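Recall that a protein's primary structure is simply its ordered list of amino acids. Everything else, from secondary elements to tertiary packing, is in principle encoded there. The following example makes that idea concrete.
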Amino acid sequence: MGANGINAAGLFDTSAGVTGVTEAGMGIILGGAGTIPNYVAASPDGLAVFIADPTNHQLMLRDTVTGSTTTATASQGLATAAGDTHAIAVGQQFVPTIGSVRMPVNVIVANQGSDNLQIVSGNRFMSNFGTVTAIGDFTLGGSHAGAGPVDLKLGSTFFVGGARLTHLYVVREGGDEICIFDEEPSSGNIHQNIRAATPRIPKAVSPWAQRRLFFPLY
C-alpha cells in the first residue's frame, strides 16, 4: 500500500509459511523528498514489489529479499507527459515451468498523458531490469483526445481450445471504454490491443472469475 504523505510504502505478508520475504510488515522508505508513491503491484511470488510515482514519472522496483530498490525514470524510457505512470500491473515474461522460482515478470505501466502502455522489465536478474522494452498502443476503440488509461488489471490465465489466454483489462476513461490487451507470453500478439468494449465512463476495473469484469460507472 502506498503512503504518499511520508514517501513510503507499507508491505504486508499475506501468505502464511512463505519464507524469504524479509520486509513483511515493515515500512519501506522510498527515495528522497518529493517521492510520491501512488500505485502498488507485486510479483506472483511476492518477492518483488513495484511502486508507481506519477508525480515524478518514475517506477520503483523493490526486491523484498535483499531490500534493494531500483528506480526507473525517463533515462530508462519512461514517458513523462502529465498523467503518465498513472497505474501499473504485473504480467509474466515467460510461461511458467515446473519448479521455476522467481519467474521473470513485466511491469505494465499505464500512461494517461501519453495514451499508451509501456512494458518495463521486472526481472532483476537481467541486464535490462527496470528499462522499457515495449509499448502497447490503443489500436481499437475510441479515438478521443486525451483518452489516456487510468487503471488496469491482469486477468487469470485460462485455456480455450487448448491455447493459453491471458488478458489485460485497461480503463481508458476519456474514450469511455474498457480496452483488452493480449498479455499471454506464448502468444504472438503479446502487448497488442485485441478488442474493445464501450461501457459508460468507467473509473476502475477488477477482473474476477476469469471472464467477468466489475467496474464502477459514473
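The longest strand covers residues 105-111. The two ends are 25 Å apart (CA to CA).
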